[in-house]
Structure formats: structure tokens, C-alpha cells
Here is the input.
Amino acid sequence: MPVVAWVTVVLAVLIIAAAALGLIRVIGHLRAVSKTLDGVIGGVGVVAARTSTVPASVEAVNGYLKPVRDFCEGV
Here is the structure.
């Protein structure tokens, strides 16, 4: 095999190795971003649960406060 062919093979291997290394680093960064996003999504779920609408017990409380409201309207 001529020297030019060997040089071409070596250069091709170096270019492919550099591209593979870059892709491996991208995979690592994407995994880190995925873990961070999982944490953010979990946090958003907790915030949504803690700030959900007031439960139906508000109707009962409003019923108990009806005499007070009637009195205030009468004043």
C-alpha cells in the first residue's frame, strides 16, 4: 500500500475519532440536562400540587359564615 493511502487512512481515523469524542461529550451533556429537567419537572409538580384550587370545604365554610354576612348586610 502506498504511503499516501496510509496517510489518508490515518487522517480518516483521526477525524472519525475526534467526531466520536465530540458526540460522546454531547451525550454526556444531554444526560446532565435530562437529569436537571427531571428535577425541574418534579418541582413544578410540587408547586402545582401546593397551589391547586381550594377544596370543596370552602362551600361549607361559606355556609357557616352566611349568618355573619346577613348581619353585615343588615347593618
Observations:
- The chain has a mean pLDDT of 91.
- Residues 35 and 58 are 39 Å apart (CA to CA).
- Helices lie at 3-50, 57-74.
- The first helix runs from residue 3 to 50.
